[in-house]
Write the structure tokens for this entry.
Amino acid sequence: MQIRPILAAMRHHKAGTVLIALQIALTLAIVCNALFIIQQRITRMSRPSGVSESNLFVIRSDWADKSDTQRIDAQMQADLIALRQLGSVQDAASTNSFPLRGTGWDNYIKLQPDQPRMTTDSAIFFSDDHTLATLGTRLIEGRNFTASEVAAQKPRDAMHAAQVIISKDLARRLFPQGSALGKTIYVSMGQAPSTVIGVTDTLQAHMTGSWAGPYAYNAVLIPARLLNDYTYYLVRAKPGQLEAAMRDAPKALFAQSRMRIIDHKDGVMSFAQVRQRAYERDVGMAILMGIISVVLLAITAAGIVGLTSFWVGQRRKQIGVRRALGATRGDILSYFLTENLLIGIGGVLAGAVLAIGINLWMVTQFEMARLSLAYVVAGVAALLVLGQGAVLAPALRASRVSPVEATRSV
Amino acid sequence: MLKMTHLSKVYRTEVVETYALRDFNIDVKEGEFVAVTGPSGSGKTTFLTIAGLLETFTGGEYHLDGIEVSNLNDNARSKIRNEKIGFIFQAFNLIPDLNVFDNIEVPLRYRGMKAAERKQRIMESLERVGLASRAKHYPAELSGGQQQRVAIARALAGSPRLLLADEPTGNLDTQMARGVLELLEEIHRDGATIVMVTHDPELAARAQRNVHIIDGQVVELSEDPRFHSVHAVADGAHG
Ligand SMILES: Nc1ncnc2c1ncn2[C@@H]1O[C@H](COP(=O)(O)OP(=O)(O)OP(=O)(O)O)[C@@H](O)[C@H]1O
Ligand SMILES: [Mg+2]
């Protein structure tokens, strides 16, 4: 309605106008990307692990005497029998690692023994015939390991893996055309062939970082007890008895042998804790981005309030003159709202370009997805609304300037 | 056109009450050219701001163009200011951020006039004050006399029935003051009612009628021929 004269007048407050527009642009660019990062982290955190997480917990047992692998092997088997016998426990299995653990083994997977490059990479979980039941992970093809297939494995020895079970995603990656069942794969440097005897439903690897994106759901289950310096016991409590089982299990283990260390702090962890640890950096990042967004928005809003208030003070006389010449309070209000909208539009246009620019830079620098345009559109709308909200109070004050101000000599 | 009866205006501050106007009576007829004189602080500006609906009053009645204005809401008062009244201020009060053309356009925009008509009226009134060539200039680029002529053009562009001027020549030298007064006289001849506050007896003398205000009251409505003749002589002496 009065856009042209507002633009004309704005040329006389270039510095403030440009400053606010720039602030809006920067805020938009950063907030868009911050919200996008938050959304990405939330998406990552809400991925399924493929494990039935409630009622599951893990115990880490470090052996006091690490030299005697034969004793370790005997102890592990005895431990498992003791754990499975507990009233609060449904099932248990030993392993080197598990989904969401963060660190663990991952090996190159090849389809030919003399293949120079890997086909893909996969997490290695040492398992036994109880592992799938303990994790609560379904077998969608083939069969489980039998007790007799499970052998002892020393860390430095060639991997004993005549039979393997692989995750659905790994199967699809290795054999996109048909079933993986009965196929041969090579899971170690030892170049011994392994036959796929089963395929599980979705099963997440131990690594959760964004770099591991392509391998996040690749897992190979190997039928072996790893005779390492320590072992993990995956324990599934009977429904509703998680707390009791988490108390009972370490006691049972110590009753078996005191020649072990179970850390009093994180030696026994529910799977909920495992998940929380796996993603605590993502949560931290999301919170940080959230705080940055809120702070930036607040600063921008404050900047708009401050500058507009200053302008209203500076223009009291001309507001009075406008009122004397017939402007209604609504006209004055709409003048300042329109002025802010025009500055805001300038700012968000620059900000949208900047937002996309920052994202493209992050795409090349980090493992970052392309910013969805919906975020830019939502950000643009949010900043324009924020601007109008911030300008409202000073604009209302302007509209209440009396026409008699026109006669005051300043 | 403009009729105030027993009108009063009190300014209240924490410590004092100032009667800027008390039992103030005036009746300005359609088409009159009235000069208002009086000592400083007597209430001349107060009278003009109330007359121009820039401010409300405390007591009494004010009829503008037959309408009792105390019952009007803010929007209605804005509309009357916009359509019926033209203001000329001592300090010109042009908007410094806008050029001459845009300054004159301000009241026309508030009236919701179409762009073509606005432009025509702006150019007409600029020609009338002899500044058609300065449409793109900013106020700061004009002399005081030119600025006041732009302000007059702004007041004229809306074809107001009532023109209120508060010491329109107060910031101008004699030469420029005379030019402005001639312009006002011309506007008056075209039918506008003019109320002008002035300190200058020479200018006051050229009005049809003088109103003298002392202590917030009209003390003299002079159409005394002697009053005119005295100034006619003075005029001649200056001439
Ligand atoms: N906003 C206000 N608040 C308090 N008192 C005021 C206000 N405006 C005017 N007055 C007082 O009202 C009285 C009349 O003031 P007004 O400005 O009308 O005088 P004036 O005749 O125009 O004077 P001058 O010739 O100096 O311009 C003065 O005593 C002044 O102090
Ligand atoms: Mg005055």
Q: What stands out?
A: Chain A has a mean pLDDT of 92. Residues B 44-45, 166 surround magnesium ion (ligand 2) (CB under 6 Å).
